[in-house]
Design goal:
The structure holds two protein chains of two kinds. Chain A is built from 14 helices and no strands. Chain A is mostly helical. Chain A has one domain: Orthogonal Bundle (MetI-like fold), CATH 1.10.3720. Chain B is mostly helical. In chain B, 79% of the residues lie in helices and 0% in strands. The chains are: A mainly alpha, B mainly alpha. Chains A and B meet through α1, α3, α4, α5 and α6 of A and α1, α3, α4, α5 and α6 of B.
Chain lengths: 284, 295
């Protein structure tokens, strides 16, 4: 049985491994090789000189990287705080409403991200849903709320909300009620229960939720383009520009490699600490 | 540790608020789609549905629709098959590199999609493949088939391996076990994974942006119009794609319910009950089969 399990495991994993090998790992390798080429070439047949990485510092691309990471961090922190009560309620308080909320949130994921962001543009712009009605009722309007840094963070919070909510709820549902009850019986305050029972025991869910939101938000383009209107340029935007308008593939690859290295090391660090079998509910 | 009634009430209010927050922008798009003017300002003075007629009559929209549908349908089928096998390796079998494999699957999900799209563009270029809707299918699969695998894995975790062992003891071959036990038991997971795959592919835009070449999908076209300047067709087409997803979801929920209603008028069992019911059904089926075999 054991050896059969082993063979079947390797066999059934093959299609997906092949798919990811050919269309995920191989492209990353190509990007890595391209990033070492001299600037503005389109083939591999050059002597690698790593000059594109020098551009990263010379042309101030590190600023857009800092903006992207900073805004992603802010969005993750905000999301954690606003999702926690909701995730807690989904895992422990709501009864039937958990299902309604889950379906409602999942459905919103199926609407293309740019349509939803466009909806916020229509809501927040001058003459949009908010300002238009406000002016209609009070007689005097205000400037649109778009095209600044807070609104980009707002957009990130909006788009990545489900990616924080569900892992958190899953993590909190792993906290045994008995432990909370026992702590309460022994006279622990609510704050203490949160700090010493809920947070440590829900840690796997917290790790996955925070990682997922941070990583996705750090690589997001549409929020800063649509809502931010280029108020700040994020690194993913620079990568895109280098590939499209700039026609400088090695530069784009180098910028992408920096982003991939940062995001990848964070993701690998987190993923290696999480036991997927425990989170996804293995019974054996 | 009972939550008081008051805080329960506020938590429900908070939940409803969260849902409203999620759907508010769609309301704005919905209003914009029926505004008569070419340039949109709120409050809307005059309503008109002429943009819908124009969108339906437009050849561009029809082409976009066709390409989006084609991509989503192919992605759905492939990711259901790949995800089915992938989930067995993920959750069911104990094999040597399972932990490593589980982590490999998560990486594309934890990856910025725009960067993934660009890497694929370079990869296709290296292979001398001209990007078209077919390459977009590959790009979508990189991201969607791991998600499909995870969804089916949830089902595979709750599956009792003794059923397969029993079938093997009764002399079934591996292929027979797949066909008779594994596939039917995982089918609900495979179908919901297919639903997710279709809808995620239908709505995806960062991956399509770089990998469709001269072809274009609906979300891509919408994005281009949003960036380059307002077109009154944008909210209209946007709402139409949302309506299409909603229709798919409604059909997906209705068809199984209809089947159940036709089969019997029993109450809908809860999830765990459903799994148990299946287990018993299968054990019974195997008992019967074995009896038949002996006869």
């Amino acid at each position: 049985m054991q050896s059969l399990d082993r063979r079947l495991g390797a066999f059934t994993a093959m299609p997906l491994i092949t798919l990811l090998g050919v269309s995920f790992l191989a492209p990353l390798l190509v990007v890595a090789i391209f990033s070492t080429m001299p600037t503005k070439v389109f083939t591999f047949s050059h002597v690698p000189d790593f000059s594109s990485y020098a551009e990263f510092f010379r042309q101030g691309y590190w600023k857009s990287l800092a903006w992207a990471l900073g805004m992603a961090l802010a969005a993750t922190a905000i999301l954690f705080v606003i999702s926690w009560p909701l995730a807690f309620a989904m895992a422990k308080v709501y009864k039937r409403f958990t299902l309604i909320l889950t379906i409602g949130v999942v459905m919103s994921l199926f609407v293309s991200e740019n349509i939803r962001l466009f909806g916020w543009v229509l809501t927040l712009m001058k003459g949009g849903l908010l300002e238009g009605y406000f002016r209609n009722w009070t007689g005097n309007g205000f400037d649109g709320l778009l095209y600044n840094v807070p609104v980009i963070v707002f957009g990130l919070v909006y788009v990545y909300f489900p990616f924080m909510l569900f892992p958190l709820a899953q993590g909190i549902s792993m906290v045994p009620d008995d432990a909370r009850q026992a702590a309460a019986d022994l006279g622990a305050s609510r704050k203490r229960i949160l700090w010493e029972i809920d947070l440590p025991l829900a840690a796997p869910g917290i790790v996955v939720g925070c990682l997922l939101t941070f990583v996705l938000a750090a690589g997001a383009i549409a929020e800063s383009k649509l809502l931010g209107g280029q108020a700040v340029i994020v690194i993913a935007d620079d990568v895109e520009t280098a590939f499209t308008y700039g026609q400088d593939w090695p530069l784009g690859s180098a910028l992408a490699m920096v982003l991939i290295a940062i995001i990848g090391s964070i993701a690998l660090f987190g993923v290696s600490r999480v036991d997927l079998d425990a989170i996804m509910g293995r019974r054996r | 540790m009972e939550t008081s009634r008051l805080s329960r009430f506020w938590l429900v209010v908070y939940g409803i608020g969260a849902l409203a927050f999620l759907y508010l922008p769609l309301v704005a798009v919905g209003f914009a789609s029926v505004s008569k003017g070419r340039y949109l300002t709120f409050p809307i003075r005059r309503y008109d549905t002429k943009w819908y007629g124009e969108a339906l009559a437009s050849d561009t929209v029809r082409d976009l629709l066709f390409i989006s549908l084609k991509v989503a349908a192919i992605v759905t089928i492939i990711s259901m098959v790949v995800g089915f096998f992938g989930a067995l390796a993920f959750a069911r079998y104990h094999w040597r590199f399972r932990r490593l494999y589980q982590k490999l699957i998560l990486l594309p999900i934890f990856f910025p999609q725009s960067v993934l799209g660009l890497s694929l563009l370079m990869w296709f270029n290296t292979l001398n493949i001209v990007p078209s809707w077919q390459t977009a299918v590959v790009a979508h699969l990189v991201w969607i088939s791991p998600i499909a695998t995870l969804i089916i894995s949830i089902r595979a975790y709750s599956f009792d391996p003794t059923l397969e062992e029993a079938a093997r003891d009764m002399g079934c071959s591996t292929f027979q076990i797949m066909r008779e036990v594994t596939v039917p038991l995982l089918m609900p997971g495979v179908i919901s994974a297919g639903l997710f795959a279709f809808l995620l592919s239908w709505g995806n835009f960062p991956l399509s942006l770089f990998t469709t070449g001269a072809d274009s999908t609906l979300p891509e076209w919408l994005y281009a119009k949003m960036i380059s300047g307002y077109s009154p067709l944008v909210p209209t087409v946007g709402i139409m794609t949302v309506a299409a997803s909603a229709t798919v979801i409604v059909i997906a929920f209705l068809v199984p319910a209809l089947f159940r209603a036709l089969k019997s008028n029993q109450k809908i069992p809860d999830l765990r009950g459903l799994v148990h019911a299946n287990v018993h059904r299968w054990k019974e089926l195997y008992r019967n089969r074995r009896l038949e075999g002996y006869r």
